[in-house]
Amino acid sequence: MTDSISDAAREIGDRVETFVRKEIAPYEQDPRAGSHGPTEELVREMRDKAINADVMTPHIRKDGGHYSQVETAYILKKSGLSPLGPVACNTMAPDEGNMFLLGKAGSEEQKARFLAPLVSGEARSAFFMTEPSADGGAGSDPSMMQTEAKLDGNHWVINGKKTYITGADGAKVGIVMANSSDGACMFLVDLPDPAIKITRVLETIDSSMPGGHAEITIDNLRVPADQMLGQPGQGFRFAQVRLAPARLSHCMRWYGVAVRAQEIATEYACRREAFGKLLIDHEGVGFMLAENQIDLKQSELMIDWCAATLDRGEDGNVESSMTKVSVSEALFRVADRCVQVMGGMGVSGDTIVEQLFREIRAFRIYDGPTEVHKWSLAKKIKKKTLAAM
What we know:
Butyryl-Coa Dehydrogenase, subunit A, domain 1, alpha+beta, Butyryl-CoA Dehydrogenase, subunit A, domain 2, four-stranded antiparallel beta sheet, three-stranded mixed beta sheet, Butyryl-CoA Dehydrogenase, subunit A, domain 3
């Protein structure tokens, strides 16, 4: 599949790798990269460097068109070599997925107002879908959505609660999902807005995304009718437009993170001696690193296979589900073994490996936990089998 990567995509991807390794990795120990992600000051500083290096939003061409999914995979895997790389290069969730959705479904006016500042890296965004489970709201099952939108003249009035909203603190563009009498809808909003209140920013296992993950109360938010994305009732369809490639781009980014963890653990095992020989010469250690190489190669092949499926114009929902399950589980095994190889050093903050472990652990949950994807796949297997009987 690497034969389908253009010289232009390969060149930008290689420049992204050099930039992330040399310019961004040193920021990993910066105190401004805290438990709720890098501060706005640090984001701006890194993005200014990305602009100067001409690697800002590298997966979108200068003319506004996107590279193919296979080419995007090549680029985003490089940006993921540091947990700060996707933030610096503007390939991080939720912005990358939101840009993709707006590019597909937004009107020209909506693109000019909401998409352009995201592509330039001037603004961050948030996607308001998940709701508190205590209120019976939407989590992995968006059909449970409790947030309501009611038409009032030429405005929609939205009320509800959201949670785990990545990047809401500091975002300038929001995509709010709510139910109307015609079904689910998506609305574009300028942030901050006094009707969208952050009640708290959660303490979570991961710490790479700016703004962290917030609980939100939406109280009589008024949105002009022309800021609806598409038509009433198209919200679930647009969610699928966004989610299939977004699952895959998560795999791309965290693949880069796992490669970096493997590099650090391998270097450590080739330097550290115990019981009269290098750690890597002990089968218990060497075999773990070998297993990591196998998991990394299988993950790379799954990512490229799914990307090629989307490039052929196929739906890709089943393929992205399988890829998300396979890659998230494999990369977690890689990160876990890296911690184990490094022993006490692996669980300390003296290297980036312990954070990489935490980040990849969270990846197994967001954009659909493994169990939900397996359940969905099992339903499709049953339907196909019964139809053939």
